Here is the input.
Amino acid sequence: MDYMKASSFLAPKELQELLGERLRRLRLNRNLDQRSTAEKAGVSEKALRNLESGRGSTVETLLRVLKALDHLQGLDMLAPEISVNPLDLLRKPKARLRATPRLPR
Here is the structure.
């Protein structure tokens, strides 16, 4: 199943649940319990449980947990930095590769 396409049809609440489930699986794959992860992230266990269950959380809690799980590259996936606007490439005239010969008058 292509999650990017399927997730575009989900409601915000469903997306929170999906994100929470993915964070929970990431934590478990790293063999970490909620208590030690919450301590490492500097958040309460309740805040971590809320995040993992999709019951809402703060951006700060999300960032702290991503950092504690050593998964800040997840941030680049959420909000990638755009270095070149693709529309600007279409608007720019292409660089000339050769001169056009002039006809004698």
